[in-house]
Design a protein that fits this description.
Layout lengths: L2 E6 L3 H16 L3 E2 L8 E6 L4 H17 L5 E6 H13 L5 E4 L6 H10 L6 E3 L16 E4 L2 E5 L1 E2 L10 H5 L3 E2 L2 H13 L4 E5 L15 H12 L5 E4 L9 H9 L6 E3 L7 H7 L5 H14 L4 E8 L6 H14 L3 E6 L17 H24 L5 E10 L4 E5 L11 E4 L7 E9 L4 E5 L5
Helix pairs in contact: 6-7, 7-8, 8-10, 11-12
Length: 446
């Protein structure tokens, strides 16, 4: 029997691509196995965003190559191979094929060629075509995790952020057809999914390549209309300057759309933002976040920052700390600058010492931990719906998330007793930690 195993590294967008490849292989008659030793086809869907991710991907490929037996094929796919295919083939003997992230939909053709003709050298399949996002062969562009599902609405990015290699890897923005997205949403509703998470490199840019304006807002309205039984719809990766008044209104008007805004700002010092080639209008940020909080008083605000960017002075970093203290985000992700060859920031080098980056990262996270604890403590006594994702039998604790927490990157709720995985359960919050909450289930009165 034809079998395959696939390991996906990196972000949720990569996971969606991996699931799409798996759908195509199943359609071809392959069966997924969770033991790589039993698979005829081994696929590693790599991440190549920053140096640590590249090293992790190469390590995974080397491990699979070392354990590969006769009759197995090892395919290196994804972001790393899209940009560094030749280097992957050179550094990992045993890779049979190189498939880039822009042509994941060709996985079956690659497997057929491998099975038909032995290849003493890796088979390269890296056509740089602009059809990613459209030539999807009818598969669902989703990745399910329990009661949640990531839904990709676009691929690529047209932004020119100086530190980011994504456009070099993914190409420019290509929005998926609206009809295809809505069909995916309806399929998820029929499958009983409780949460749909819209993802793209920049969700607020959806439709721009088709000349559409404010298209995310209208897409959300269409999603609500075709899937009234999905209780949670979450929007990720909004771009500063593109959270419009209409988008805020749509989010505030429809209860299905969670009052949760993820808008990576990257910094708060205007000079640093200009070197990043990012929006540097902090007045817009202040005004927009005020509008969001006025329209959705219970909104959870998440952002991401980079510390140690070339040229970041102590004064610039203090500006960032002051900004975080003033805005009081619910969630903050922080990363240390990673030098990426080929990006616009490469000309700056990587002048800030690692120990300075680490010290600044620790100071930022210590500040945010205090804020997060305060925000969580304000929830004690409230009853919030929790989407149950697991159960710890040893401690008799269910584990889940509120609307305030996106999967894998935000906090959890530890709920006393058993609860059905995949269900939304009302929970009275009884305790708060810097990132997580505790609580007990309650029965709502009819």
């Amino acid at each position: 029997m034809k079998t395959f195993f696939i390991a996906s590294l990196g972000c949720a967008k990569n996971t969606v691509d991996a699931e799409s490849m798996a759908q195509l292989l199943r359609r071809e008659g392959y069966r997924f196995v969770d033991d790589p030793a039993q698979a005829e086809v081994l696929i590693v869907n790599t991440c190549g965003f920053i140096a640590p991710a590249r090293e992790e991907s190469l390590a995974a490929l080397r491990e699979f190559a070392a354990q590969k037996r006769a009759g197995q094929f090892l395919i290196a796919a994804g972001c790393l191979t899209q940009r560094y295919g030749a280097e992957v083939a050179q550094q990992v003997p045993g890779v049979d094929a190189i498939l880039g992230t822009r042509r994941w939909m060709d996985i079956v053709a690659v497997v057929r060629r491998l099975r038909a003709t032995p290849h003493p050298q890796p088979l390269y399949h890296l056509p740089d075509t602009p059809t990613v996002g459209r030539d999807e062969q009818g598969v669902l562009r989703v990745a399910r995790q329990g009661g949640s599902a990531y839904l990709k609405i676009a691929d690529g990015c047209r932004r020119k952020c100086a530190f980011c290699a994504i456009p070099l890897i993914k190409g420019t923005l290509v929005s998926r057809p609206r009809a295809a997205i809505l069909a995916d949403v309806q399929a998820l509703q029929e499958a009983g999914v409780q949460e749909v998470i819209l993802i793209a490199q920049d969700t607020t840019d959806y439709g721009h390549d088709r000349g559409e304006r404010d298209s995310l807002a209208s897409l959300l309205e269409d999603i609500v209309a075709v899937a009234p039984d999905i209780p949670w719809i979450r929007v990720m990766y909004a771009f500063p300057g593109y959270v419009t008044d209409r988008l805020i209104e749509v989010m505030a008007t429809h209860p299905q759309i969670l009052p949760y805004l993820d808008m990576p700002l990257q910094h708060a010092d205007p000079a640093t933002l200009r070197r990043m080639q990012r929006p540097a209008n902090l007045d817009w940020v202040h005004r927009t976040l005020a509008k969001v909080r006025q329209a959705m008083p219970d909104v959870a605000l998440r952002t991401t920052f980079i510390v140690g960017y070339p040229g970041e002075t102590e004064a610039a970093f203090q500006t960032l700390l002051d900004f975080v203290a003033e805005i009081r985000f619910d969630r903050v992700g922080a990363f240390q600058f990673s030098y990426e060859p080929g990006t616009a920031s490469a000309r700056f080098g990587d002048p800030i010492p690692p120990e300075v980056k680490q010290e600044r990262w620790e100071r930022l996270m210590a500040l945010q931990q205090e804020i997060s604890l305060e925000r969580n403590q304000s929830l004690v006594g409230q009853v919030l719906d929790v989407l149950v994702e697991g159960y710890d039998e040893a401690h008799d604790i269910a584990i889940g998330r509120t609307y305030r927490d996106a999967p894998e990157i935000d906090g959890l709720v530890l709920v006393e007793g058993t609860a059905q995985v995949g269900a939304l359960v009302p929970v009275r919050i009884g305790g708060a930690m810097p990132y997580d909450l505790t609580g007990v289930p309650v029965v709502r009165k009819a």
